[in-house]
Amino acid sequence: MDEKNFSRVNQFILLGFTADLWLQRVLFFIFLIIYIISLLGNITLISLICADSRLHTPMYFFIGNLSFLDLWYSSVYAPKILMNCISEDKSISFAGCLAQFFFSAALAFTECYLLAAMAYDRYVAISNPLLYSQVMSPRLCANLVAASYLGGFLNSTIITSKTFTLNFCGNNIIDDFFCDLPPLVKLACDVKESNQAVLYFILSSNIIASAMLIFASYLFIVAAILRIRTTQGRLKAFSTCASHLTAVTLYYGSILFIYSRPSTSYALDRDKVVSVIYTVVIPMLNPVIYSLRNKDVKDALRKMADRAKCSHIKILGKQWLHFNLQIISSNCHQLYSQR
Q: Distance between CA atoms of 69 and 155, rounded to whole angstroms?
């Protein structure tokens, strides 16, 4: 490109979902409700796991970490989406776009690895129930979570550095609601097919590799379930995996649809809807998925509600007693004054 035609981009414009002002307001309230539910649901689940000793097991340790990850994950996208829905200024600085891209990729990779670790946890629980607590020791669980974060942030550092060293010269309009790889690659003016292939290989290979680990774990899980003689035992064993399998299907189904295809088949309008699923909807659904059919979580929630109710009653009782003591004291004071 000629030097005179080169113009370094220092900000991007996020077009979002629509240019219609009324629809933007509607979307603002929809995403606000989703974000609030996501925050409340994940914070509640983390609080339950920390507060109830019955939930201090490897499975709930991973679920708690997934909820913490979803809190962080949804907060990468939702605030900017909400701001763009009510503001005329749709711009995001180059540094802001880089930061959003980095944390988006880091948390997405981390969730992939964490879901794979959770699949291994379910395999151990079903295949070796008597040795489960010994195999899935606190140290191993902590190492698996730490490795998930390390792998996620390491891969994000690589893909972010390769993406943002491209030259964005001229068009700075991103037809999406966040800084994602496909629209950024389309904006680059000097991207080569080899560089583009490397970027997509790093992205898709990590996602597919973790998906294959989950698939392998479930093959062993199915084999272990089939060795159980009673139908009731098989159903009970499978029920322990149902929540995780649902979460994996939703997350990997949407994320593989976006990133495992050739860049030439990328369709902005269609893929925006799919992107919403794994960026803001799934962090809201995960607490529901892991709580809906989980007796332990329901009991812990009921116990917490009863404790809060008792505390509220005690506070009201103390206030009522204090109020009555004040009245009695006042009456006594009046009688004493009359004498």
A: 17
- Structure tokens that stand for 94 in this block: 């180059």
How many of the other CB atoms lie within 10 Å of CB of 5? 9
Question: Distance between CA 214 and CA 253 in Å, rounded?
Answer: 13
Which tens digits make up the pLDDT trace of 57-114?
Answer: 899 999 999 999 999 999 999 999 999 988 888 889 989 999 999 999 999 999 999 9
Helix, coil or strand: residue 52:
coil
> Is residue 338 pLDDT above 50, yes or no?
yes
Q: Whose CA is closest to 276, among 19, 21, 13, 38?
A: 38
Q: Enter the tokens of residue 95.
A: 């540094």
The residues facing 11 across adjacent strands are 93
Closest CA to 185 of 196, 177, 193: 196
Q: How confident is the model at residue 4 (pLDDT cuts 50, 70, 90)?
A: very low
* Residue with the two structure tokens 């990997």: 252
Token code pair at residue 222: 């199915």
From the list 217, 205, 213, the residue with the least C-alpha distance to 256 is 205
Q: Looking at residues 269-296, what average pLDDT do you find? A: 84
Tokens 């109710």, located at residue: 309
User: CA quadruple 313, 319, 325, 328: dihedral positive or negative?
Assistant: negative
Q: Among residues 206, 202, 199, 204, which one has the least CA distance to residue 166?
A: 199
Closest to 218 (Cα-Cα) out of 197, 194, 192, 248 = 248
Cα dist from 186 to 21, 166, 267, whole Å: 27, 11, 12
Cα–Cα distances in angstroms (integers) from residue 56 to residues 47, 64, 296, in the given order: 12, 10, 11
Phi-psi region of 170 (alpha: psi -120 to 50; beta: other; left: phi over 0): left
Vertex 176 angle, CA 209 and 106, to 5°:
35
- Measuring CA to CA, which residue among 77, 80, 73 is closest to residue 42? 73
Please report the pLDDT score of residue 64 as a whole number. 92
Read off the pTM.
0.84
